[in-house]
Amino acid sequence: QVQLVESGGGLVQAGGSLRLSCAASGRTFASYSMAWFRQAPGKEREFVASDTSIGIRYYTDSVKGRFTISRDNAKSTLYLQMNSLRPEDTAVYFCAAHLGFRSRDGPYDSWGQGTQVTVSS
Questions:
Q1: Distance (Å, whole) CA 5 – CA 47
Q2: 50: how many CB neighbours lie within 10 A of its CB?
Q3: Cβ(10)–Cβ(117) below 8 Å
Q4: pLDDT band at residue 106 under the 50/70/90 scheme
Q5: What average pLDDT does the chain have?
Q6: So what's the pLDDT on residue 26?
């Protein structure tokens, strides 16, 4: 399994932006389907966005037009650019990985420890 470490979370006002990063171990990053999930207090974990091993990207409806998923294969890093943040985006954000193709919300084999994003109103 690949090791994943998220960073970039923090406290931001509504309307602001954050960029999350997920650094992966290993040398086959380009072959992985990667995704971002989030979990708000008292709620189940939900799919946010994915970047598949064949280059197709998916987004949940609530973040379309505001969030952008991308990757840098040379750096083995996944990103999530989050703009126009809303209080309802407050959650712990996790990255996930699967070697090969995965569509949208998985299942995924490897998970990071999460990074907190808090959006104040």
A1: 18
A2: 25
A3: yes
A4: confident
A5: 96
A6: 76
